[in-house]
Amino acid sequence: MRFRKSVKVAKGVKLNLSKTGASFTLGSGKGISLNVGNKGAYLNWSIPGTGVYDRVRLDTLLKDKLGGLFGFGKKDEEPEVQAEAIPEKAAKAAPAKKAAKKQPAGPSEEQLDALAQEVALINIHQQAIDVAERAEGLLVAGAAEQDIEDWLGESEAPIAFAIDTEVLPDKGVVMIDLDLPEIEDMPQNKLTELADGTIKIKKKTQKELREDYRTCVFGLGEYVASHVFAVVPAAERIVVSAYTQRRDENTGDNNDEFIYSLIFERSSFAPDYQERDPYDFCGDLKGRFYVLASGLMKKIAPYEPEEI
After folding, report:
1. What CA–CA distances, in Å, run from 281 to 115, 137, 178, 275?
2. Which of 244, 239, 247 minimizes the C-alpha distance to 288?
3. Confidence category of residue 295, pLDDT binned at 50, 70, 90
4. Residue 68 has what DSSP assignment?
5. 68-72, 97-101, 172-176, 287-291: lowest mean pLDDT where?
6. Does residue 60 sit in the same domain as residue 140?
7. Which residues, at least 6 apart from 64, have a Cβ–Cβ distance to it below 8 Å?
8. Domain carrying residue 126
9. Pair type for strands 237-247 and 199-203
10. What are phi and psi for residue 101, nearest 5 degrees?
11. How many Cβ atoms are within 10 Å of 213's Cβ, its own excluded?
């Protein structure tokens, strides 16, 4: 089910294969490497054995930093207004005007729209749908996989994700490996009201980012499971095992690590379940996950078909 392997192409170059696509890792893996795939280009560096490491998304960074240089995303500049010359005597005679107190400017409409889209990304569980209480019909592997693929092609989720599926007709189960977004892709900013009532955009703390990521990734599991139940009415249960990329502190390599594995039953989707916190909702399911008080999610072993 979990088809992932790395092929050494040349010294310092690995081809990483999975059902969701291919990516390349360039570098010796001892301190610095570059990973390029369908999730973007990431520069990874570390000091082996120290736990000191960082990960920077290069494609987004270069677009932000160099876009204006090449004309991408560059806003139209305001036309320069030529000030009229004031005669020297008139300038001396003119009474000095008291400088008006400049009011702090709030966020622009574009910034507010962007933040609204980011809130939708975090709260994707609110876009999950109602689920029929009972399974109907015969579960056929090929037909079910095609229905899921058709749904993926039409999905308008506010977040990019990929899945691998395996259908177990004799058990009435659809098993899904869910490729999660990275925590680096989470919205970094929030709206904050200052003491004078002004609304400003402020950077989130690490704790806030981890809480947002937890809400997003568990909510994405809800979203996927509910839609798959809808397009595969014969499925009785759906197992969603979600993974993300984590850095090995010793080698600097990025590896796929599963952070939760959940068994969704049709009966789990009670009315208005979308209004619940997705972490609490998923906590009522049979599953495997371990979240530290700091918000970090530990690596787990996902369910295998023979365990269902």
Report:
1. 25, 28, 18, 10
2. 239
3. confident
4. G
5. 68-72
6. no
7. none
8. 109-307
9. unpaired
10. -70, 125
11. 23
CA pair distance 173, 177, nearest whole angstrom: 13
The sign of the dihedral angle between the CA atoms of 175, 41, 209, 259 is positive
Are residues 123 and 37 located together in one domain of the fold? no
Structural domains in the chain (count)? 2
Separation of first and last alpha carbons in the chain: 14
Strands 237-247 and 173-179: parallel
For the chain, helix, strand, coil in percent to 5 are 30, 30, 40
Q: DSSP H helical segments within 155-205, as ranges?
A: none
Residue 125 identity: H
* Close Cβ partners of 76 (under 8 Å, ≥ 6 residues apart): none
Q: State residue 211 phi and psi, 5-degree precision.
A: -65, -40
| Range of weakest confidence among 75-79, 136-140, 192-196 | 75-79
Tell me, yes or no, whether 202 lies in a domain: yes
Both tokens assigned to 109: 């409409």
